[in-house]
Amino acid sequence: QVQLVESGGGLVQAGGSLRLSCAASGLTFNSYAMAWFRQAPGKEREFVAAISWSGGSTHYADSVKGRFTISRLNAKNTVYLQMHSLKPEDTAVYYCASGGTYGSRSEKSWAYWGQGTQVTVSS
Length: 123
Fold this sequence. Notes:
By secondary structure, the chain is an all-beta fold.
């Protein structure tokens, strides 16, 4: 079955950086778009970024544009989220997703999910 395993979360001060990773198995990785979502306490899960199957196209939520970069290494079945200039409002559980449509920002459009990794940004 499909498994997505996130790693790289942690506690960081405002202005700092983190890189999240998501290792995928059980699917033909280079055939699928991938995405990152996040969910802050008391809030709904929201779209962060997505990348096409080839890595040639990406799009971002306005709140992270210019600070976060999504990338993938198909040879390692892994997608990354590089986060810079982190803000306290970036604090959330970050989820990797697959099995969805590249252009969709709705969590309902994505079939497979990881367990999440916590990112906490202190002020």
